[in-house]
Write a structure and sequence with these properties.
Layout: E1 5-9, H1 16-31, E2 37-41, H2 47-54, E3 60-63, H3 80-85, E4 90-93, H4 96-101, H5 106-119, E5 122-127, H6 131-135, H7 139-151, H8 156-159, E6 163-166, H9 180-197, H10 200-205, E7 207-211, H11 216-223, E8 230-233, H12 240-250
Parallel strand pairs: 1-2, 1-8, 2-3, 3-4, 4-5, 5-6, 6-7, 7-8
Helix pairs in contact: 1-2, 1-12, 5-7, 7-9, 11-12
The chain binds phosphoenolpyruvate.
């Protein structure tokens, strides 16, 4: 049985007072729900604030990005051990906005996954096709390439520690959600790929979460799909009521 994971990707939003208030509201929701793992991924400078507001509740803390080197002359970057030191358990890797605006590649994603695993962080590895790729029918090819390169050379027990996020780029921040059937099809494709290229048991256990305009109004039907094990939520994670409703839909 895979425990659903509901993760909020706050992106570059919120100031400290807002972050505290939002976290406190989410902590209240999680105290009333069972069987869901809830993760908040604020910007780096809010990690401390969010950690304080999480207190001793079960809400998990994560980051949106890391750099693969352990330390050194990499101005502006943050290492995996720094994230662990800040209280993170998870880190999002290869988000399409990082690929689009900051030059992340399939290979850099793999290096970052390695750094995260070595430090004991759970990587949330993002994959997804663009609108053009969906329209020209290359979704399976793109997903297969992204997943294969990301997981290349990892042992099955390492892959078992990862979370995969399927995030069709055309659905992120656009209000256009993949239909539950479309999302399920890609999730099943990813699970099958992991089954064939890594290990059957790992494929059964790994969580594959969906991201792309998930909100209270569509969470139920997306989360009801066999291979959708949670959500990576951007816009709707900034609103306590919306995010709480998604957590409740998963519980
Ligand atoms: C995301 O940033 O990962 C995301 C899915 O954003 P949104 O929910 O706003 O589409």
């Amino acid at each position: 049985m895979r425990t659903p994971l509901i993760a909020g990707n706050w992106k570059m939003n919120l100031l400290r007072a807002e972050a505290s208030a939002l976290t406190e509201a989410i902590v209240t929701t999680t105290s009333q729900t069972n069987g869901v793992e809830v993760l908040l991924c604020p910007p780096f400078v809010l990690l401390d604030t969010v950690r304080a507001a999480i207190g001793d509740s079960d809400v998990e803390l994560g980051a949106q990005h890391l750099y693969s080197e352990p330390s050194g002359a990499y101005t502006g970057e943050i290492s995996a051990t720094m994230l662990v030191d800040a209280g993170c358990k998870f880190v999002v890797i290869g988000h399409s906005e990082r690929r689009q605006f900051f030059g992340e590649t399939d290979a850099s994603v793999r290096h970052k996954i390695k750094a995260a695993l070595d430090a004991g962080l759970t990587p949330v590895v993002c994959v997804g096709e663009t609108l053009e790729e969906r329209e020209d029918g290359s979704t399976p090819k793109v997903i297969e390439r992204q997943v294969s390169v990301a997981l290349e050379r990892f042992k099955p027990e390492e892959v078992a520690k990862m979370v995969i996020a399927y995030e069709p780029v055309w659905a992120i921040g656009t209000g256009k959600t993949a239909t539950p059937e479309t999302a399920q099809e890609v999730h099943a494709f990813i699970r099958n790929l992991i089954s064939k290229s890594v290990d059957k048991q790992v494929a059964k256990g790994i969580r594959i979460i969906y991201g792309g305009s998930m909100k209270a109004a569509n969470a139920d039907e997306l989360l009801a799909q066999t291979d959708i094990d949670g959500g990576l939520i951007g816009g709707a994670s900034l609103k306590a009521e919306e995010f709480s409703a998604i957590i409740k839909a998963a519980s």
